[in-house]
Amino acid sequence: MFGGKMIRDNQRIFNRLLVLIDAVIIALSYLLAWFIKFRSGIITSNYAGLDFRFYMTALFFVVPGYLLLYSFFRVYTPMRIRRIRAELTNLLKPNILGLLLFLTILFIIKQEHFSRSMVLIFFAITVVLEWATRIAIRYILRMARIRGFNVKQILFVGYSRATEGYIDRIKANPHWGYEIRGILDDNLERGIEYKGIKVLGSIRNLLTILPENKLSEIAITLGLEEYGKLERIVALCEKSGVHTQFVPDYNNIIPTRPYIEDLMGLPVVNIRCVPLTNTYYRIIKRGVDILGSLAGIIVASPLMLVITVLIKVTSKGPLIFSQERVGLHNKSFKMYKFRSMEVQNEKEEKKAWTKKNDPRVTPVGSFIRRTSIDELPQLFNILKGDMSLVGPRPERPFFVEKFKEEIPRYMIKHQVRPGLTGWAQVNGFRGDTSIRKRIEYDLYYIENWTIGFDFKIMFLTVFKGFINKNAY
After folding, report:
1. Start and end of every Bacterial sugar transferase domain (predicted)?
2. How many CA atoms does the CB half-sphere of 175 hold within 13 Å?
3. CB 219, CB 156: distance < 8 Å
4. What does pTM read for this prediction?
């Protein structure tokens, strides 16, 4: 069984080894870039008077420079629970900055003959090799951890929903390499278990457990009502030198990702992070919406023309159906659709869900609803600014009033523009599906928005969002 000190020593040795591996990769990438540029014949090149020795001299500055950038961007923080995509992002940041600095220095010293294309090749090779190395290391470590090596001993202090959530995640991810020693809690009897993890005793037992120095980490997972003990427990843990983390038990209050502001030294926890409250992000998203909706209207115009003819010749009534929906900041707007149902009483229509085999749906309507073609006129809503390409789907006022009383946090969805498609929809939550699950996905989207996330959802919509078994 590894003690906490041994784990920390192993981590330091591993980091030093990783720095050495990175130095070799950077040098190898540089040499390979030089070979591809000047010797491989892949790229037509003029040597321009600079010999091999000159290029290799620059390498003495490139390797330590890149290692400093890696250290600055915290590339060497433990990757135990870091996602592979985050690993790539972590590598791209220092390498992009390194590329820019390299080119800037060449410009400042007016070195016109140093190949810029070689520098670009060096950048590409470095990123690919570094990421491939990280993937290989990650795989080796995960296999080792699953077999019981390089395992961290973790103890939970306090029993709450946060404790259960943490245990659930560790159990679901054995490759993280955590072995749970147990739980200390003042309110539960010794021996009580959660998924095989026992309560070992009261929090006072820390006084005897910590001096043994067998723990790698302590997770403080006190319930909200016990936060008065927090300062004493943190002081005790830090005195022992054991890495301590605090997992707040406020999941029912702050369900996804809070963010912290520094108010002149006073940390302020904001209840909800909504990136689209930022003016810069709103402008970017709106620009994408305008360009996307215009492109969509142009591309889909032949199809929309065919649908209008089919609706006109198969049923009486208007071609376009407009319905009041609740949008950004709880403001109502008229949302457009191709009419897919027989004309009906407006009061009845406002309160009725569409059901499977609904007799009100026309034959053409059944097809365009199932394929989501009926939603195409909403491209004009997007162009007007009522909607966005991606966002939570808007609902009718009657249901908004109903759901806001029944579902906690329902109204948060109106802090952003409603969308033609959304994260809930590409995950199958549309039509007659769980409203609560839909809201969970909508909140995740709202609090984790990036323009890249929008493009991902639009991409997924093409393959899994248009045709849906729940679209009646």
Report:
1. 285-464
2. 12
3. yes
4. 0.58
- Tens-digit pLDDT profile for the chain (472 aa)? 344 455 555 667 777 888 999 999 999 999 999 999 888 777 765 555 677 888 888 899 999 999 999 988 878 776 666 677 777 888 898 999 999 999 999 888 888 888 888 999 999 999 999 999 988 888 887 787 777 777 888 999 999 988 998 999 888 888 788 889 999 999 999 999 999 999 999 998 888 888 876 788 899 999 888 888 888 888 888 777 788 888 887 766 665 566 677 777 777 777 677 888 888 899 999 999 999 999 999 999 999 999 999 988 888 888 898 999 999 989 999 999 998 887 766 655 555 556 566 667 788 878 888 888 889 999 999 999 999 999 999 999 988 988 888 887 788 899 899 999 999 988 887 766 778 888 889 988 998 899 989 999 999 888 775 655 555 4
**Within this chain, do residues 328 and 202 fall inside the same structural domain, yes or no?**
no
Check whether residue 428 and residue 300 sit in a common domain: yes
Which residues have a Cβ under 8 Å from the Cβ of 81 and sit 6 or more positions away? 173, 176
- C-alpha 336/C-alpha 111 separation (Å) is 60
Q: Which of 101, 135, 117, 121 is nearest to 29 (CA)?
A: 121
Paired strand residues for 182: 155
In this structure, what DSSP letter does residue 464 have? I
Phi-psi region of 45 (alpha: psi -120 to 50; beta: other; left: phi over 0): beta
Number of domains into which the chain is organized: 3
Provide the β-strand partners of residue 154.
180, 217
Whether residues 300 and 200 fall in one domain? no
Chosen domain end from 86, 112, 146: 146
Are both 293 and 440 inside the same structural domain? yes
| Distance (Å) of CA 343 to CA 4, 318, 394 | 72, 8, 22
Domain boundary among 220, 253, 286: 253
Residue type, 328: L
Its domain, for residue 32, covers 4-146
End-to-end CA distance of the chain: 58
Eight-state DSSP code of residue 395: B
3-state secondary structure of 200: strand
